[in-house]
Structure formats: structure tokens, C-alpha cells
Predict the structure.
Amino acid sequence: MKENDEIKELFAGFNPPVGDSLNFMNRLSRNLDTIDLIKKHNIAVRRVNRLAAVIAVIAGFAAGVAATMLLPVLKAAVGTVEAPGISFFLMSVPDLVQTGLWLLVGVVSVLVTLSAYDVSAGLLKARQK
Amino acid sequence: MTREQFTSQVEATQGALRRFLIALCCGDAALADDIAQDTYVKAYLSLDRFRDDAGFGSWIYRIAYNCFVDSGRTRREHVDVAMAAGMHSDELSDSRFRYQALYAALARLSERERTAILLYYLEGYSIKEVAEIIGASQDAVKQQLSRGRFHLKGMLHERE
């Protein structure tokens, strides 16, 4: 107990000067301003990326639907291929044409989605500036 | 918490925190202020994780203790008397001289002992609160306080 009181007494009068509080607060304020600027920038970048992603999904979906609607036309076009070796090959594997055309639809959708994302993100960032 | 609320909490706590850090850094006021700045910046960055307005003080001290530990590599462990020669403020020189024995005694404690002693005796936190701040059990804090008291008393009596 006595030991406790001695230590308490030691710190009772401890009051070193801490330096100018105004300078300290000004320095902190500058640091907080920098943080706020970076946070604002990050929010803007996230907003642009989100919007570009939505545009890309819509564009990719639309391209996929359009390509799907064109499937009968494409299938008919493949059917008119006259090269004997190729038509024999295509006709002897019935699902190959169908599978190939669906793959084409998928590739077109993905390519349109990626391109739409790049273009819309670029345009939105340019508009922000 | 908004920035304005955070700033008013900082204004209310910065004096005591900086005094605590000066003692923790054994009189190095410049280092103490750097650590205090880092503390408040990290607190501002983690504001979304802070829920309890009443516990702002102990939350800040927890961050300050972690910043102090992180700064360990650049910290001087002993009071540099030669540093006092560079002081251009009379008030600063006087205070360094007045508390030189205390800083020297504190410098010889381990980081945890020093922190426990200062949080308990200088800041008035309970053992439970000290344990939460430094991330130790209450038994460990009691041990650190006991050892810290023993070393501090011994060192200060040596100088008398």
C-alpha cells in the first residue's frame, strides 16, 4: 500500500509541457484532409467501375441475345458450305455445328462484355475529369 | 462518427495522450508527437470499426500503445542527456531537467512494465482497462505493475 502511494506521488506532479496544441491540431488536420481526398477518390473510382460493369453486362447480354437470334441464319450459312471435305466432316458430326455456333455466341458475348467495360470505364473516367 | 465529432474528441484527448506518450518515450517529445499523430490518423482510418463513444479514450490508448511498439526500431531506449543541450526552449529544458530522473528510471523498465505503470498511475485506468489496452491478461498486468513498481522504487531510491 505504501509502495503504491509512493508511486502515485511520483506521478501526481507529472505535467511536462506538450508543445503547441494548435500546431499539433493543424498538422493532424492536414493529414486528415489527405485521407479524405484519397477516400473520395476511391469512392469515385468504385462508382465508375460499378457503372461500367453494369453497362458491360447489359451490352454482353444484348450481344448474346442478338447472336442467338442469328443462329438459324448462321446454321443455314454453314449448310451451304460447298467444300466437299468440310461439308462431309460437318455433316458426319451433327452436334458439332450446333456446339460450334453456341460457342461462337458465348465468345461474342464475352468479347462484347469486355470491350463494353473498357470503353464505358474509359468514357466515365474522362467525364469525371 | 463524423470528422467534426472525431476532431472534438481529439481536442479533448490530445493533451493527456501526448503527456502519456512523452513519459512512455522517456522525455522524447518529438517522438511522442509523431506517435500521437500516427495514433489519430490510424484511429480516423478505423472510425467505421469504432462503436462505443464512451470508450474513445481507451480505444485511442490501445492504438497509441500499438504505434509505440511499432516505432520501437527508431526509439531511443535511454534518456540522452546530450539532447538537452540542443533545446532552445527554457521551459522544455527545465521540464527535461525536472523529470530527468523519472525518465531515466522509466527507460530502464521494459515496454510493457512502463506502459502498465503509466496507464495505471498516470492515466488512472483500472487493471481490467490496462489489460484491454495492452492486450494482456489481468494477472499479467498485475505482475507487470508489481515488477514495475519494484524496479521504479529501487532506481529512484538509488539516486537519492
Remarks:
- The mean pLDDT of chain A is 85.
